Amino acid sequence: MELGPGTGTFTEVIQRRLAGSGRHIAVEINARFAGRLAARHPSVDVAIADATALRTVLAQRGVDRVDVVVSGLPWAAFDERSQRSVLSEVVAVMEPDAVFTTFAYVHVRWAPPARRLLRALRSHFDEVVISRTVWANVPPALVYFCRRPKVSGQVLRRSLPAGR
Q1: Measured between alpha carbons, how far is 120 from 73 in angstroms, rounded to an integer?
Q2: Is the pTM of the predicted complex or chain greater than 0.70?
Q3: Residue 111 predicted with pLDDT over 90
Q4: Mutual orientation of helices 112-124 and 80-93 as an angle, nearest 10°?
Q5: What is the C-alpha to C-alpha distance for residues 126 and 164, in angstroms, rounded to an integer?
Q6: Chain mean pLDDT for the chain
Q7: Potential cystine with 126: which of 90, 93, 98, 148 (Cβ 3.0-4.6 Å)?
Q8: Which helix (H) or strand (E) is 36 found in, with range?
């Protein structure tokens, strides 16, 4: 699942990585961007929706949970309530061993919204790994790799069949 694909910069990379396997659902709130994205990437299932409605988006597609969530959402533009609402929805749709990846720009890393995002990530995931600075990006950015989503403070565990 891809959140906030915008014009499709990450979509290109995700499609190359999937190489025709897997299912790619992109959630974009801007109808114009969504239309362009769908035209450029016909194999991507583009949903025009808010990221706080991920369970609904997936239910409409007959999907319960996802393995990977890649976010291009502008977290620094979100207030605390919006950040938490989106992250709670992300965690709700993730498999126990799923990975959530998002990015932030280095120049705002210490600003209150960016610090709030990192705290929220740490409260929603058991592990948050921060990449080295990607200097080739303009502006320079870093990536957050988040693993093992938590629900109500508890790490989700995949249940194994009896006898394992």
Answers
A1: 15
A2: yes
A3: no
A4: 30
A5: 24
A6: 91
A7: 148
A8: helix 31-40
Phi, psi of 96 (to 5 degrees): -60, -30
Q: Which residue has the tokens 């393995």?
A: 67
State the pairing for strand pair 94-105/141-151.
antiparallel
Q: How far apart are CA 39 and CA 104, in angstroms?
A: 28
Contact status, residue 2 vs residue 24, Cβ threshold 8 Å: yes
> How many Cβ atoms sit within 10 Å of the Cβ of residue 43?
10
pLDDT for 26 equals 98
Strand blocks (E) in the chain: 2-3, 25-28, 45-48, 66-71, 94-105, 125-130, 141-151, 154-155
Query: Looking at the chain, how many residues does it have?
Result: 164
Q: φ and ψ at 124, to 5 degrees? A: -100, -10
Alpha carbon distance 33, 76 (integer Å): 20
DSSP 153: T
Half-sphere exposure of 72 (CA within 13 A, CB side): 17
Q: What is the pLDDT of residues 40-93, one digit of tens each?
A: 999 999 999 999 999 999 999 999 999 999 999 999 889 999 999 999 999 999
Is 83 in contact with 116 (CB distance < 8 Å)? yes
